[in-house]
């Protein structure tokens, strides 16, 4: 008796999946739990583990430009993978004809998460980038694995009541509790600075400036945060001036000197190159002539170069790269 075509496709997909993760321990699900595999690998002193759901097809639906694959998923299944499982989870698609394995970091896919939140359809379509191909892009996959783990940890932490969290930590050594509290403070400040950056990208310069000022006011004992926040504040001041209709020359020069002096006062074990500080403080311009906005843009470029050179101990560097004016 001939096996059904889907069974053959699933078998071929399983073979391709296992070949990619041949150096990992692949444990298949024996029941219909909503996932197909738990995959684990020893990595230095720790282990890497993730859950995966595998979809195989002999008729893979590529976009017109070939940049992504459309994978339909039931709403409940997508919700389970993206929001309910408490370990890094991926949706995999195998084109059995091309013998290619693609992945979606579904817990990081904001479009999928938004569609699940709306919950107005029984199914949704996950767009899997064809650039997410294994084993060729294994380093990017491992980066997604790390980010997915962070997303799960943050979700668990947010869903934990403060009293339960404190009780869980109570048996830890005092030194460990102190280190954890300090680390959470620093991570929180970095997150607020990132939020301010996103506000600026959306055009809310005043809101971004207020957010950075709040961080600076509350983090006086954290040199790293003060330093990074001051650099970010300097950029915001420049962008605000470029949008302003008021006479800018005197204000721009004074605020640049104030920011530079603040940075000088906060320099730490990673010294600020004197030439950069001098350029920033004196408002030197690249080239000659041009409008006032051009000169402010030049100063902003210098500030951004300074940020790349001066960040210490876990710098604030937006994932999307340097913003445009």
Detailed description of the structure:
The chain has about 325 residues and is α+β, with helices and mostly antiparallel strands. Helix content is about 55%, strand content about 15%. The strands form 2 sheets. It has a 6-stranded mixed β-sheet with strand order 1-2-3-5-6-8. The termini are far apart. About 25% of the residues are buried. The model is unreliable at about 270-290 and about 305-325 (pLDDT under 50).
What is Rg? Answer: 25 Å
CATH class placement of the largest domain? Alpha Beta
Compute the average pLDDT: 79
> Could you estimate the helical fraction of the residues in percent?
40-55%
The count of strands amounts to 8
Provide a compact summary of the structure.
With 325 residues, the protein is α+β, with helices and mostly antiparallel strands.
Pick out its properties:
single chain, 325 residues, alpha+beta, Trna Endonuclease, Chain: A, domain 1, 2 domains, six-stranded mixed β-sheet, two-stranded antiparallel ribbon, 8 strands, disordered C terminus
SSE diagram, text form:
Blueprint: H1 5-20, E1 25-28, E2 37-43, E3 46-57, E4 68-74, H2 75-84, E5 89-95, E6 100-104, H3 110-118, E7 123-129, E8 133-134, H4 138-158, H5 162-169, H6 174-201, H7 205-218, H8 223-243, H9 249-266, H10 274-282, H11 292-310
Parallel strand pairs: 3-5
Antiparallel strand pairs: 1-2, 2-3, 4-7, 5-6, 6-8
Helix pairs in contact: 6-7, 6-8, 7-8, 8-9, 8-11, 9-10, 10-11
């Amino acid at each position: 008796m001939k096996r059904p075509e889907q069974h053959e496709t699933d078998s071929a997909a399983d073979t391709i999946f296992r070949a990619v993760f041949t150096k990992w321990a692949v444990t298949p699900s024996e029941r219909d739990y909503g996932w197909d595999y738990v995959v684990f690998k020893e990595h230095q002193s720790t282990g890497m583990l993730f859950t995966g759901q595998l979809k195989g097809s002999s008729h893979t639906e590529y976009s017109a430009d070939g940049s992504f694959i459309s994978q339909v998923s039931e709403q409940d299944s997508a919700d389970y993978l993206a929001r309910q499982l408490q370990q890094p989870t991926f949706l995999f698609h195998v084109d059995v004809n091309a013998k290619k394995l693609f992945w979606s970091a579904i817990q990081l896919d904001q479009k999928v998460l938004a569609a699940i939140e709306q919950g107005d359809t029984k199914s949704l379509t996950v767009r899997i980038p064809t650039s997410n191909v294994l084993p060729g892009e294994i380093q990017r996959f491992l980066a997604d694995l790390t980010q997915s783990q962070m997303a799960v940890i943050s979700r668990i932490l947010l869903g934990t009541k403060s009293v339960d969290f404190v009780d869980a930590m109570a048996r830890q050594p005092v030194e460990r509790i102190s280190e954890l509290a300090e680390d959470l403070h620093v991570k929180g400040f970095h997150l607020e600075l990132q939020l301010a950056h996103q506000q600026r990208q959306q055009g809310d310069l005043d809101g971004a400036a207020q957010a950075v000022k709040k961080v600076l006011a509350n983090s006086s004992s954290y040199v790293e945060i003060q330093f990074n926040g001051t650099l970010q504040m300097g950029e915001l001041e420049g962008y605000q001036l470029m949008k302003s209709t008021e006479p800018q020359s005197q204000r721009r020069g004074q605020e640049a000197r104030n920011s530079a002096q603040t940075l000088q006062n906060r320099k730490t074990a990673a010294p600020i190159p004197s030439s950069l500080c001098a350029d920033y403080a004196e408002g030197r311009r690249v080239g000659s002539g041009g409008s006032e906005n051009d000169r402010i843009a030049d100063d902003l470029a210098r500030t951004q170069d300074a940020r790349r050179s001066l960040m210490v101990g876990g710098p604030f560097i937006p994932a999307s790269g340097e913003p445009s004016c």
